Amino acid sequence: MAKSTVAILRTRPATVLRDYHNLMNMAGYQDVIARDSDTALKVNISWHFFFPGSSTTPWQLDGVIRAMKSDGYDPGLMHACQNRTVVIDARLGERENKQVNVVEAHGIRNVHLYEGGEWIDIREAVGDLTKKFLCLNEVYPKGFMIPRGFIGENIIHLPTIKTHVFTTTTGAMKNAFGGLLNERRHWTHPVIHETLVDLLMIQKRIHRGVFAVMDGTFAGDGPGPRCMTPHVKNVILASADQVAIDTVAAKLMGFDPMQIKFIRLAHEAGLGCGDPREIEIAGDQSAAEENWRFQGPFSGGMTFASRMQHRIYWGNLRGPLQWTLKTVLAPWSYIASVVYHDSFWYPKNADRLMAQVLASDWGRLFQNWEHVVADADGYPDVGQQPAGVTRLGPHALRKSVGILGTCIKEAPEFASRRRHREAGKSGAQ
After folding, report:
1. CATH number listed for the domain at residues 4-298
2. Other beta carbons within 10 Å of 288
3. Segments in 315-392 forming alpha helices (H)
4. Contact assessment for residue 193 and residue 247, using Cβ atoms and an 8 Å cutoff
5. How far apart are CA 260 and CA 62, in angstroms?
6. Between 369 and 421, where is the model more confident?
7. Residues 350 and 400: beta-carbon distance below 8 Å
8. How many helices (H) and strands (E) does the chain have?
9. Residue 235 near residue 181 (C-beta atoms within 8 A)
10. Element (H, E) at 403
11. How far apart are CA 255 and CA 275, in angstroms?
């Protein structure tokens, strides 16, 4: 059996577009992504505020679209794919992270999964595959819905290299989490590793092709995917094997991939390769041998919020509080998350933690994105103005109040009751 291939290159703004194009072809994306099917470019928004390493970068999205156009793919069959969560405003996030700028510049469709799309029951979508699930049948005994539009289309995941307080690292496999599960996805947190394996099984069944392009120009360490310490690492990765690309990323960060449960379970299930010794590296071999020695999410740097999450899902608060997350009381947790992360942590810590990386060439490229001019290779002039943090003090507080209102309004526990009321009124007419 042929080894899984992960491509890796070092990059810089002046060459990043050419590098992304070469990277994708080194990883064989044209053998995986069918030209005659729609392709979802699954954007990652881990925070609706800009934080380096947290979300898909604009040059990552731009590089992938340009590469596909250059290789003859029809832009009419490409679309950006966004999902909402109970604590993340995707419409705000795509603006703050400048992803929507790229989508509009290329004139491709921008699909927000929770805005009018049709959903299909998982049993109808994958049939007997549900019998192989590790945990989702127990989490959702009545089943769950997935987007009908995913059936038969390609998907290219666009994660970043970062740590995560639930899974140690996060990347290609977890990028499916927001798109495939409904808004009660937080029910899976106690069995998050098993959930990611089940979701990869689903993807392999429903998608015509699955590929991942991972950005490590910025990378995040600490209690991710939000409250991290960002670093400039200047690498990019790509692979058709979702397990293998997460394995290489974990190894770069300094972790033993087979000690990360979701990687080990997926490897043992034959869904991909989690053993670095069995992965073929294409591109820059020396880059793949780097060890960034990240501390990870559990080495003394966990935030108050992440410590409380661990106590609720796996610790001494599991009995008293976890049951509330499956009832109409659940929005207390969404409100607490928005208040802590958006109203407190970001305005208090973001400027200090981001200052060094924002002064880099990548920081200036982000700041001046609307004005930079690309050539065939990349962005030769990134401008002089470093990126700045605008969501500070009263400004951040005012914005977080608006996000809090949206969070409460769109909470699935309230939204489902609202839909039932509206359906009842329609039936009575």
Report:
1. 3.40.50
2. 20
3. 318-321, 331-338, 346-358, 361-367
4. no
5. 31
6. 369
7. no
8. 18, 12
9. no
10. helix 393-410
11. 12
Lowest average pLDDT, out of 21-30, 162-171, 183-192, 350-359, goes to: 183-192
Place of tokens 């990883």: 27
pTM: 0.93
Q: Which residue has the tokens 């591109």?
A: 283
Q: Which residue has the tokens 């939204």?
A: 415
Please classify residue 118 by burial: count the beta carbons closer than 10 Å to its beta carbon, then call 0-12 exposed, 13-18 middle and 19+ buried: exposed
The residue extents of the domains of the chain are 4-298
Structure tokens at 278: 């069995």
Give the whole-angstrom CA distance, residue 105 versus residue 372. 13
**Largest Cα span, the chain:** 69
Look at the block and give the residue holding tokens 């490409």.
78
Tens digit of each residue's pLDDT (9 = 90 or more) over 210-253: 999 999 999 999 999 999 999 999 999 999 999 999 999 999 99
Partnered with residue 212 across adjacent β-strands are: 157, 239
> How confident is the model over 319-335, as pLDDT tens digits?
877 778 777 777 788 88
Q: Which two tokens stand for residue 6?
A: 């992960």
Say which residue the tokens 């979702």 belong to. Answer: 242
